[in-house]
Amino acid sequence: MSRVLIIGAGGVSSVVVKKCAMLPQYFSEIYLASRTVSKCEKLQQEAGKDRVKEVFAVDADNVPELVALINKVKPALVINVALPYQDLTIMDACLETGVHYLDTANYEPKEVAKFEYSWQWAYQDKFKQAGLMALLGSGFDPGVTNVFTAYAAKHYFDEIHYLDIVDCNGGDHGQAFATNFNPEINIREITQRGRFWENGEWKETDPISVREDLDYHGIGKRASYLLFHEELESLVKHFPTLKRARFWMTFGDAYLTHLRVLEGIGMTSIEPVEFQGQQIVPLEFLKAVLPDPGSLAEGYTGQTCIGTYITGVKDGQEKTIFIWNNCEHAICHEEVGAQAVSYTTGVPAMIGASLMLDGNWMQPGVWNMEQFDPDPFMERLNQYGLPWQVIECDSPFSK
Ligand code: NDP
């Protein structure tokens, strides 16, 4: 049985739903639930009622509501593409109903921006004992970047030493300021302090303060800034030979200027403030007035380039490889009506789910992506819309 329940009906979900709908060999029946049922109905219409059998309203913060829904649908797997705040309640509901789980982002409590796996790793024994699997972070970064690292370690090196994940969106959506995925999560991520792994410890930097100008395949030179990104935590745990692991993301000057102004006036804060007798969180309000990332797809030009530089040793020789994918916004729009950031997240979620359901990656417990054989995942990236390339090259980074 390969019935899936997808929770969340935003930008990423729109890709997951449509890609799953194209592949009945992995996903025999699709059910969709989210907070706003009209968004589910729209997606059901677009993907076809023969493939998305039924849609539901659900509050995924509420475990009994989730349990009732899962018992009604009886899926083999829940694909969580709601927000990181819902990870633990959905995992609890999966445990209670005996259903496998997959997500694309680590759990976050609303009150603090932490970006760490501790809460979800604590579910390891419960999932193992229940004979259930939870696959964490099956998006692009985290997700594909973890698999790229595992692929490099398996096929190109005896030991890996230096890892630099680089994420460039070289596209133009024509808006003054917009984020490419959920604005609240995106802004929480980039306004936190920078962090990277070096010689066995985490080192901190001020937010968006360390810059390298990197040359991206198909795009050209772009200013790239060091950020903490959650996959670094699991990658340094699972590849203890890493001496240094960092993450870089490109931002344009106009984006950074808007962000600095918004930060300067307190609009990115997650501390509630009182407004006309009500408590409101400035960042939640900001999200409400920014463009919906799902709506950016039409007319979005250019492409993304996301990849991993890895330096290590093979047969006593040091070398560096770069593995990456380029993804065109316009091609994603033509295929599924989405922009490339939703697409590069949604396709890996579908692939991770397919590998669980067909048994390739099925194993009880809570797992990060790099803990499985990367080969079938890499094959499916080529097959289902995210072809990758690999080259041996000089590292653009100094040691
Ligand atoms: P959106 O904001 O577009 O969509 C989120 C969806 O979840 C919305 O439909 C929203 O409902 C729904 N939702 C929120 N709260 C609840 C709730 N309590 N109960 C039920 N449904 C709820 O986000 P994105 O599609 O951009 O992102 C989805 C996920 O993907 C996020 O976790 C994000 O961090 C992750 N992501 C991962 C990436 C990766 O590479 N690994 C990259 C990009 C994103 P409503 O419509 O009512 O608001």
UniProtKB/TrEMBL annotation:
Q: Could you tell me which residue ranges the Saccharopine dehydrogenase-like C-terminal domain spans?
A: 139-386
Per the record, the domain of life is Bacteria
Give residue ranges for domain Saccharopine dehydrogenase NADP binding. Answer: 4-135
Q: What is this protein called?
A: Saccharopine dehydrogenase family protein
Q: Which organism is it from?
A: Corallincola holothuriorum
